[in-house]
Specification:
The complex is a heterodimer of chains A (about 150) and B (about 290).
Chain A (H helix, E strand, L loop, with lengths): L1 H31 L1 E10 L3 E5 L8 E6 L3 E8 L8 E2 L3 E6 L2 E6 L3 E2 L6 H4 L1 H5 L5 H13 L1 E4 L4
Antiparallel strand pairs in A: 1-4, 1-8, 2-3, 4-6, 5-6, 6-7
Chain B lengths: L1 H21 L2 H8 L6 H6 L3 H24 L9 H12 L1 H4 L10 H11 L6 E7 L6 E4 L5 E7 H7 L3 H16 L2 H6 L4 H4 L11 H18 L3 H15 L3 H20 L6 H4 L3 H8 L7
Parallel strand pairs in B: 1-3
Antiparallel strand pairs in B: 2-3
The chains are: A alpha+beta (about 150), B mainly alpha (about 290).
Chain lengths: ~150, ~290
């Protein structure tokens, strides 16, 4: 009987600890991400992807097309300075209902002159499927891109 | 029957509303007021001048709208069409070329950038897509002015164990071919010149022309390749350019030697000479001529 009592006391203490850890985790997670919209920028290439993590190999949350407006966040974690770039070159952005990462180099502060806006009927003729748009976005993820310097 | 009529009238009214939304306030005013019927009143109120201004403004808006609508049917000109077509081809050939794969950072783009700058090409965009297949070893694709698209096979550069500089030289050779217009000339059908930069409003879209262009991309990349004459011209040009920098010349020569050995020993790359004829001949063209005494 007393063994049973000890066991239930032990269980209760374990449960309390778990609860404490959960509360602590929630409060830390709460303090972790303070997001603020810094500016609105536009996607500047034909098609692109919003990634789950700041990596070109990370899962795509959605495919976006040229000229799509994106809210760029600055993120403050704890006492650190708010930052806009992650992994040196990724912005944390919101596109419609999705929040994810996109490379800084793929964004423009002004609305870009998009090929599909300039030649809408021409682009329509190629009857691009969703998989084509996805692949086009992947192409811009995977291009090794460089611009040679000014003379 | 009644419900059908109701839906039809609803659709018509939605369509009219959508058209109305596109119109400016001036246009809507112009449609509401018949200025001709109230000419006398306007004269009395000395508003004739104002009406003239309004009518001419409406005409300008209508003209601009018509122009904008016409421009929507434009076909890009030669400065804007190539990157679209090359990228479309890459997208449509994704399953064959297998470019969507994880790879380490080789730093190829940095070494190509340095070489391009050394050769005097400034403010140009370089795009390299790595493919995970030996079916396309290396190639520059036609692109818009001021930008260059390269395709490079990772199995090919790994098998050859090429250095970053050798890869840059290999891509520079591709760049030379594209600058000479060999690719563009091969894939452009006779009617291509008259189609690009034109407008197809009220006419059927010349889709056969573009289908033929994309098909010819396949032909050149996987089957026909370049001619001996084109290879000779390319090799001679690089020989002339690299002679001023013996390090680059030596890298070019050694790289061709590596490729020559590979295509003679590895069955996987035996078709290489069909596309780029031929490394052995290129080496001969590069060799300084012996003086006959």
């Amino acid at each position: 009987m007393s063994r049973m009592g000890n066991y239930s006391i032990q269980m209760e203490s374990v449960m309390r600890k778990i609860l404490l850890v959960v509360i602590l985790f929630i409060s830390v997670a709460d303090a972790k991400m303070v997001k603020k919209v810094e500016r609105v920028m536009y996607y500047k290439y034909m098609f692109g992807h919003l990634h789950q993590n700041p990596s070109k190999y990370s899962t795509s949350l959605t495919t976006i097309s040229c000229g799509h407006p994106l809210k760029v966040y600055s993120v403050k974690s704890g006492d650190e300075q708010p930052r806009v770039l992650f992994n040196k070159e990724w912005n944390f952005v919101k596109a419609g209902p999705y929040e994810g990462y996109i490379r800084d180099e793929q964004l423009s502060s002004k609305k870009p002159d998009c090929f599909q806006d300039k030649y809408p009927k021409f682009v329509d003729q190629f009857e691009m499927e969703i998989s084509d748009m996805y692949n086009w976005g992947r192409l811009y993820d995977l291009y090794l891109y460089k611009r040679t310097r000014v003379r | 029957m009644k419900s059908c009529l109701l839906i039809l009238s609803l659709l018509v009214s939605i369509n009219v509303q959508a058209q109305d939304k596109e119109k400016t306030i001036e246009e809507k005013e112009g449609e509401l007021v018949d200025f001709k019927s109230i000419q006398e009143v306007l004269k009395e109120d000395q508003l004739t001048e104002e009406v003239h201004k309004k009518v001419s403004r409406i005409q300008t808006i209508k003209k601009e709208r018509k122009k904008a609508d016409l421009e929507r049917y434009n076909i890009p000109n030669k400065n804007e069409i190539w990157s679209f077509l090359s990228e479309l081809w890459l997208v449509k050939s994704a399953s064959v070329l297998k470019w969507d794969f994880q790879k380490p950072d080789y730093g190829i783009e940095d070494s190509l950038k340095s070489l391009m700058e050394e050769m005097g090409y400034y403010e140009v965009d370089l795009k390299i897509i790595l493919v995970n297949t030996p079916v396309l070893t290396h190639m520059a694709l036609p692109s818009n002015k001021g930008e260059y698209i390269f395709v490079l096979s990772v199995p090919f550069i790994r098998t050859l164990d090429l250095s970053k500089l050798e890869i840059a030289v290999l891509l520079y050779e591709d760049f030379t071919r594209i600058k000479k217009g060999y690719f563009q000339n091969f894939v452009s059908p006779a009617s291509f010149g008259s189609v690009i930069g034109s407008n197809f409003k009220g006419k059927p879209f010349p889709d056969q022309v573009f289908k033929s262009v994309l098909k010819k991309y396949d032909d050149l990349v996987f089957d026909r390749g370049f001619t001996f004459q084109q290879q000779f011209e390319t090799t001679k040009e690089l020989n002339r350019l690299f002679k001023a920098n013996m390090k680059l010349w030596t890298v070019y020569y050694n790289m061709l030697k590596k490729i020559d050995d590979l295509v003679k020993t590895n069955l996987l790359y035996s078709g290489y000479t069909k596309i780029f004829p031929s490394p052995e001949l290129q080496l001969n063209w590069l060799k300084p001529k012996k003086e006959v005494l």
